[in-house]
Write a structure and sequence with these properties.
This protein has 537 residues and is mainly α. The chain is 70% helix and 0% strand.
Length: 537
Amino acid sequence: MPNSNLSPQEIFDKREEFGLENSVEMLTDIVETDKDNGKRKSAIKFLASIIKYIPKLNNECFITLENILISEINIEIKCEAAKALGKLKNEKALKPLKWTLEQKSANVDLRLATLKAIMKTKFKETQITIFINELDSEYNSIREYVKSQLVGLEPEILIRLLLDNLESETISNKHKSEIIKLIGYELSSINISFQDRDYIKVKYPEVVSSLLRNKAVLLEQIIRNLKTEDTELIDSATLILKLLSPEINRDVIKLLLSDDFIIRKNAITIAGRLKLKDAVESLISGLDNIYSEVSVASIEALGEIGDLSSVPELLNILNVEDISFEYTDIDMKFYIMDAVKKIYSSNKGANFDYLFSNLESNSETLKESIAFILGDIGNEEFTDPLTKLLKSKNLDVKKNAIISLGKIGNINPITHLIEILEDPNSYWLIKKVAIDAIYNIFQRNWYRITENNIEFKRILTKHIAILIDVLKKSEAENAKVKIGLIKFLEFYGDEPALSALLARVNDFPRIVRIHASNAIKKIEDKIEERLGLNNID
């Protein structure tokens, strides 16, 4: 009999010399009796490796490993036993492996080792369902592992089994959400896009049939479990329901009238993602819902759908004359503005006369909102209507008009913006945004100077000269206004700007002095660099 003090590695290496059956016996003895857990763990690993040479002892090894998996206290030993059972590929191991997963005491390492062993042993419908059950695991590593194995299945098999489990009343809503995500992921992995649904119908007819058979369950579970903060879930739900459209469109629209707040809100979100034009009327009726979440969801859905007919209804919410009666949730205004912008952006060549006409409204809130929208859309044709708003006495209207002119970038309003800077009665904030707008306009047009557009260069040089004069006379001006002018001249000024900047190097507060000094240094460096290049030439 070989020396009992041999290590598992030595026994495995000399298995032919000792005899395979003797080697198995020696390794088994170490597993069952040795007090050194490191040695026992190594023995388990080599026990599983040696079996491929003597298949007839597979059952005998299985019994040893099963006992270890069930009765052992040390987790590392149990994990090694699970791995070894996977190498045996003995279907008898499925029962103890499944039992291990059912134990609450099984930690993440043991669960992962057990799942991998099941995968190696057999991976048919029963085992696939075990993996689907683990989509609800509290451990991220478990969830990622089972997902990676499940998506390797044939799409027809995976989606059918996921749908079967989605109907179960024993699984949690969180679990159902994970199933919906995986269905969406699988659909995206087989090249589904919203434009080529015919492809999947031809390539994977069984997938389409399974989804259509379960459309009621899918819609119910999606509507009940949708969470707007879970973008992965929303994207998967949208992909699934796009594939089922138009068969589920009418059902979605019916749910828009649900008395259940959650169901209604989620149905609104889905109607928007599916761009259901037939839902517009119902969505408009939800704009003044007592629940602000429903109103916001309705606004966002109308923006997604992009029907121009909803613009008047959306803007009507903003059409208030008395600011004290404005909606309690000020964010609502921004949701509306974003929705209107999306609607016009999705309708290329749309007429903007309706927006222009509302710039004559008595509602300052409506005018400042439209000014903001026009700037975000950014068409050149908005320049004149926005320039007219510069005469408004309302600061918010004027501010948004100035900001929007800066976004659009047409040079024509610069003269009017400079007039604001020169007006001693202009509020400092309006002056500050006017400087920022001028800066943005210069940024968008400076390339035309580098293209040697002489006339354009003359116009911009004239504006720069006026702004130099404004800074020179700005001793009593607000510090933020002065800093804005200084930053502008730092980039677009040249030698003529130095006198105005020098006039500000002793100003209060200190931050003005710092910016003025930095600007002077930048301009001097620019001049020096230019002179150096000229000397080289």
